[in-house]
Amino acid sequence: MKAKLDLKGLDKYLASLEQMNLDMNQVCADALKTGAERAVRGMKKRVAVDTGDLKKSIIVGDIKIDGNDVSIEFGVLTDDPEIRRYAHFQEYGSSSMPAHPFIRPTMAEDKRGIKSAMINKLKKIGVQAAASAEGEGSGSEG
Predict the structure, then answer these.
(1) For the chain, which terminus, N or C, has the lower number of CB atoms within 10 Å?
(2) pLDDT tens for residues 123-136?
(3) What is the DSSP-derived secondary structure letter of residue 94?
(4) Which of 1, 58, 69 is closest to 32 using CA atoms?
């Protein structure tokens, strides 16, 4: 059970950073990772805990860059089929068990916070890049 983020709606922030000649794949990767980390915190806060194995399986995966496509997986990322099955039943319920969703509510209720975290990361990258550029240009004549 995975979730997905994209950078739609962040065009103005990305455009201003692109003008700074930054590695845009890395900029996007950093923003996506920040958003995914925020989402994972929300999922872990909402997930029902029995043994704790499901909660431990809610993680941020690796960044994947393929040309200009930057992506990240997060959520229940495990090879253990029992944990994946349990996650599915927690999220959607079964004929004998009510649902205790944690992924869908996180993505719906925390949407603004996730986007805000990504915007703040982009702003921070821009401030650091601007400060770095100012540092390169400052020097004393002598």
Answers:
(1) C
(2) 888 877 766 665 55
(3) B
(4) 69
Q: Is beta strand 69-76 parallel, antiparallel or unpaired with respect to 2-3?
A: antiparallel
Residue carrying structure tokens 């509510």: 105
75 sits in which H/E element: strand 69-76
13-51: per-residue pLDDT in tens?
777 777 787 888 898 999 999 999 999 999 999 999 999
59-80 as b/e, with b when 16 or more CB fall inside 10 Å? bbeebeeeeeebbbbbbbbbee
**Block residue for tokens 């960044």:** 63
Query: pLDDT of 56-105, one tens digit each?
Result: 999 999 999 988 888 999 999 999 999 999 999 999 999 999 999 999 99
According to DSSP, residue 76 is labeled E
Angle at which helices 24-46 and 11-18 cross, to 10°: 150
For the chain, the maximum distance between any two Cα atoms, rounded to a whole number of angstroms, is 81
| Torsion from C-alpha of 61, 37, 5, 86, nearest 10 degrees | 60
SS3 state at 86: helix
